[in-house]
Amino acid sequence: MGIFDSLSYSTSTSSTHLRGKIKSDSFQNIDDALASFDLILRSNRSPPVMELNKILSALVRMKHYATVISLSKQMEMFGISHDICSFNILINCFRHLDCVDFGYSLMGKLFKLGFKPNIIRLTTLIHGLCREDKFVEAVDLFDDIVEKGLQPDVCTYSIMVNGLSKEGLLHEALMVFRKMEGNGCLPDSCSYNVIIQGYLRHKDVSMAKQFIDEMVGKGFSADATTLELVVNDDLLVKKLLSCSKSSQSES
């Protein structure tokens, strides 16, 4: 076998090896993933976005978030349109990089294109917006979710209630809490604890007691943070501890 035949054989073997990794989604390092991405881009006139998404997902698992964003730009330069999967991957990367503004803008683009994003991705984005005190954007996104016919889950509602409560927007937090019930999404222990903590932190003991009674009546327990906030109120502490013991004995 001549030197050029050997080179051709080696390249062919390498390509076959990389294609096998793409199909099995089993990249062990970034070099293999990047080589496979480049191979797909340059060997197909219309590269399949699903194959490229597999590589992007593998890079996310390796925590190369900035690299994923860079590769997505390459896809656009090659005229490859993102699908719902690649959009979700990008939103996840922006969240990990604390670039929630970019994630928020991308979500708006998704809605305009008629896509319905994953509720988990939407929830993590809302969480990021609340964490950065971008409550106007968080509320807008939450309203968009409902308007587009997506059903927020109890985690989405609880994050909104928590964010609004911490900001002192207790009336708005209460409205979201009651909307959750009205939409058939039943509050859980976390939901009750976050709204109770909001009222306690802002010295509205009357509303806090109302929700404590409601929470206890439904058999939910106070978490450690709620107990710390009521430590100076013996009656509330006794009520919450008795409920906690009752829950433990039932389990």
How would you sum up this structure, described in words?
Pfam families: PPR_2 (PF13041), PPR_3 (PF13812). PPR repeats lie at residues 118-152, 153-187, 188-222. It comes from Jatropha curcas. Keywords: Repeat. Belongs to the PPR family. P subfamily. The structure is a single chain. The chain is mostly helical and 251 residues long. It has a domain at 23-116. 75% of the residues lie in helices and 0% in strands. The radius of gyration is 25 Å and the shape is elongated. The chain starts with a helix and ends with a helix.
Low-confidence stretches: 1-16
Distance between the termini: 73 Å
**Structural class computed from helices and strand pairing:** mainly alpha
Enumerate how many helices there are, as a single number: 14
| Mean pLDDT value | 83
Which series of helices and strands comes N to C? HHHHHHHHHHHHHH
Sheet having the most strands: none
Radius of gyration: 25 Å
Report strand %: under 5%
- Number of E-state strands: 0
Shape: elongated
Helix content: over 70%
